[in-house]
Fold:
Amino acid sequence: MMNEVKEFQTILQVIVSRLVKMIANEMIISDKEALNNLYSSKLYEKLEQQETKVWHLSVPTLYNIYIEEIKTGKIVFPEEA
Structure:
C-alpha cells in the first residue's frame, strides 16, 4: 500500500512538472505562476486524487482540460465530451 502511494506521488510529480512547463510555455508565464495557477485549479484537485484516474490522461489532454476550466469554470473530461 505504501509503495502504491509513493509510486502515485512520483507519477503525479512528473505529470505536474510537464503540465506546468506546457502551461508556462503556451501562456507565456513563469513556471512559478503556472504552478500556482495549476495548484489552485479544480483540475489539480482531481489530479491529486488517485482514484479519479485523471493522471492516466496525456499532458496535452490535461492542458486542454485546464484551458477549458479557465475559460468556462468547468472541467470536461474526454469521456464526458
The helical segments are 2-27, 31-39, 42-47, 59-72. DSSP finds four helices and no strands in the chain.
